[in-house]
């Protein structure tokens, strides 16, 4: 991608000369979450008896028999009473895993620049909604809002609003505190948003439990480490055909769980395994497919774009289901409700589920996307304006965490949905004499300084 003078000025104006957030002194624990599969030894802990969630699941399994991995994940992560995200949700150094926005403010700043770039490329519409799915603690949105504030003069004639899709009461409280200082109010039950407030920079913010509750309109969607936590179905190829992997009680240890194979094909096996599948083990996330379809329909109808950033692959990996607790690999069937459960996103499946309603770009590695977005330029500015050695070391360490192929650089991927008219397809080459120009999509093409 060629960095035009106007875009270079945009980058400089938005990011400014110095950083804001004090970076944590180390991020070695984050590397635990970068495993590409379930290989490696989960942490071992002394047993203290079954958790409330495990007791709930044991009762359920005794009554109904084995459940799908998807049902197990749904209960363990989002059960209203004992689910991991509804009662714990340990993001950050003191939690169970750390994310890119927590490592460096530069990550969120460049995401903010991406949305502004797309807004400008599509003619600066008079209004846009920024919709984030699963906003965590609100750190990423906070960094994006800071970019919007830096570009307030550019956005002065644009009606901007923030819409957060969050099912966790605990996390929504964290988000409200970070983004509004806690100045929010609950909405009536008949209103689609269950909470609303105003950011510290004066932008309205709304909270929803489902993407369908977000009002229609020109919108930019953001899903950072969202799809990897959605429930998956697991399937194994056998001599008798495909069988679904289920969760059941271990008959030898009554308060422990184990994986078993379905004795025959299940409805999920019939619906989700493609005839051309060549792998012997497959993970499918139907909820991700449904959400991508909804995003594609909205973008097709109202315009905008969606940016997905997550651990994932392009239809090549097999068994990636894993758990994390205290920044270490954790047995996915042990102490459910106390650990984060995740599986790599299959971007080939997301692409297919758009059903051609939008164009798609990626997936590309995080290191490539951030380099194309100008992270090296941003780092140079921060280093030049850092007067103490400790800050410089923190900046370099955070940059290494984000960009090093052995850390987050290659494990993380970026994937985008855009209207078809926004992307020039290779088979529709523009005539050399044509004066019409379509701005390149930031991040997905090489950055060249002019």
UniProtKB/TrEMBL annotation:
Listed under GO biological process in this entry are: methylation; mitochondrial respiratory chain complex I assembly
Region feature Disordered, mapped onto this chain: 20-45
Name the chain's protein.
Protein arginine methyltransferase NDUFAF7
- Asked if Transit peptide is a keyword of the record, the answer is yes
Q: State the family named in the UniProt similarity comment for this chain.
A: Belongs to the NDUFAF7 family.
Record localization: Mitochondrion
Please give the start and end residues of each transmembrane region: none
The UniProt entry lists the main location of this chain as: mitochondrion
The record's SUPFAM superfamilies line, in alphabetical order, gives: S-adenosyl-L-methionine-dependent methyltransferases (SSF53335)
Which top-rank group of organisms is this from?
Eukaryota
């Amino acid at each position: 991608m060629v960095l035009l003078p106007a875009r270079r000025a945009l980058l400089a104006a938005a990011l400014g000369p110095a950083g804001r957030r004090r970076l944590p002194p180390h991020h070695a624990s984050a590397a635990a979450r970068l495993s590409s599969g379930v290989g490696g030894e989960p942490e071992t802990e002394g047993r203290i008896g079954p958790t409330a969630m495990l007791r709930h699941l044991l009762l359920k399994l005794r009554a109904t028999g084995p459940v799908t991995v998807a049902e197990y994940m749904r209960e363990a992560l989002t059960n209203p009473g004992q689910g991991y995200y509804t009662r714990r949700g340990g993001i950050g150094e003191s939690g169970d895993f750390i994310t890119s926005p927590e490592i460096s403010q530069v990550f969120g700043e460049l995401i903010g620049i991406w949305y502004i770039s797309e807004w400008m490329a599509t003619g600066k519409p008079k209004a846009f909604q920024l919709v984030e799915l699963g906003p965590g603690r609100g750190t990423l949105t906070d960094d994006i809002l800071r970019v919007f504030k830096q570009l307030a003069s550019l956005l002065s004639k644009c009606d901007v609003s923030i819409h957060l899709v969050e099912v966790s009461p605990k996390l929504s409280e964290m988000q409200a505190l970070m983004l509004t200082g806690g100045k929010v109010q609950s909405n009536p039950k008949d209103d689609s948003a269950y909470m609303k407030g105003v950011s510290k920079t004066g932008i309205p913010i709304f909270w929803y439990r489902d993407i369908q509750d977000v009002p229609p309109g020109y919108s930019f969607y953001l899903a950072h480490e969202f799809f990897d936590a959605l429930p998956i179905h697991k399937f194994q190829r056998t001599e008798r055909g495909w069988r679904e992997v289920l969760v059941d009680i271990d008959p030898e240890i009554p308060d422990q769980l184990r994986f078993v194979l379905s004795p025959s094909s299940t409805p999920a096996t019939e619906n989700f395994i493609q005839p051309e599948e060549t792998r012997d083990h497959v993970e499918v996330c139907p909820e991700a497919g449904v959400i991508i379809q909804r995003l594609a329909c909205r973008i097709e109808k109202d315009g905008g774009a969606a940016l997905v950033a997550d651990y994932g692959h392009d239809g090549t990996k097999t068994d990636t289901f894993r758990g994390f607790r205290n920044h270490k690999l954790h047995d996915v069937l042990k102490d459910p409700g106390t650990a984060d459960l995740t599986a790599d996103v299959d971007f080939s499946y997301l692409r297919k589920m758009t059903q051609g309603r939008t164009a798609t770009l990626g997936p590309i590695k995080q290191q490539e996307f951030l380099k194309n977005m100008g992270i090296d330029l941003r780092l140079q500015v921060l280093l030049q304006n850092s007067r103490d050695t400790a800050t410089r070391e923190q900046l370099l360490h955070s940059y290494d965490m984000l960009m090093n192929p052995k850390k987050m650089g290659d494990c993380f991927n970026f994937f985008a949905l855009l209207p078809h008219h926004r992307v020039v397809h290779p088979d529709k080459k523009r005539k050399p004499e044509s004066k019409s120009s379509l701005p390149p999509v930031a991040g997905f093409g090489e950055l060249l300084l002019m």
